[in-house]
Design a protein that fits this description.
Layout (H helix, E strand, L loop, with lengths): L2 H9 L6 E7 L6 E7 L20 E6 L4 E6 L3 E6 L2 E4 L3
Antiparallel strand pairs: 1-2, 1-5, 2-3, 3-4, 5-6
Length: 91
């Protein structure tokens, strides 16, 4: 699936911005399961990233378990869980 379409799907999952996602980490190939949320700005320190997240196929989220910001690699997402539905990709 095109990363822009996946980005749109995640943002349009409804009023609830909490969702589960499974993807493969770019750094080490590890499969990662995460419960995360969009739109968390409370803990931002300011400044700008040194790279373009859209160009790299990344989506910034707040990881609810780790209580920190993370990037989801949209190119390797295999599953999104939200609003009682499961969306599978790349199978």
């Amino acid at each position: 699936m095109n990363t822009e379409l996946m980005r749109t799907l995640i943002k349009e999952l409804g009023g609830q911005r909490i969702f589960g996602v499974t993807f493969v980490k770019r750094s080490n190939g590890e499969v990662r399961d995460m419960t995360c949320r969009l739109g968390v700005k409370k803990y931002l320190a300011g400044g700008e990233l040194g790279f373009d997240i859209v160009e790299k196929g990344l989506l910034p989220v707040y990881d609810l378990k780790a209580e920190d910001y993370r990037m989801i690699n949209l190119d390797t997402v295999t599953e999104i869980r939200a609003n009682g539905q499961v969306y599978k990709f790349g199978e």
